[in-house]
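Changelog note: in this version the structure field was regenerated for every chain. One regenerated record is shown below for reference.
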Amino acid sequence: MTTRRWDIDERQTGIADGSAMDPQVQSLLDTMKRDGWVTEEPEAHLLPHLRRACGEDWTLTTEQLLDDGVYEVTLTPTKESKDIKPIEVHRTAIRLLSAIAEPVFFVRQSEPGVFDCVTGVLDGDPPGFRSHGHLVRLILN
């Protein structure tokens, strides 16, 4: 395994640790653990926005709410996509998921073509709604 952080990294170390964002991340974690925080009926609240975000480039092929509250959505490209670079797949996933983004928005690529997202409203976030959220797994085939 290389010690470089990207292809032309010469320093091999950063300028600080990430603890400056600890309070924000901890707030999200604490809030996500509240019973009933994950919102019901993602097919009503999220699906229309995801369909619009697909535009002419993607087709929504499956969607299902899993027992753990994760809303799993699978998309396939409408055009040949064998030559899409991994970074472009990542950027596409972020663009699609941004259509459902709320004040808190976290995305992590968990495996090739699979993006896990938490989005929602924490206490005190604008526009002042009660705290709630969504767990979404976007699969780009």
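Spot check on this record: The CA atoms of residues 26 and 137 lie 21 Å apart. The mean pLDDT is 92.
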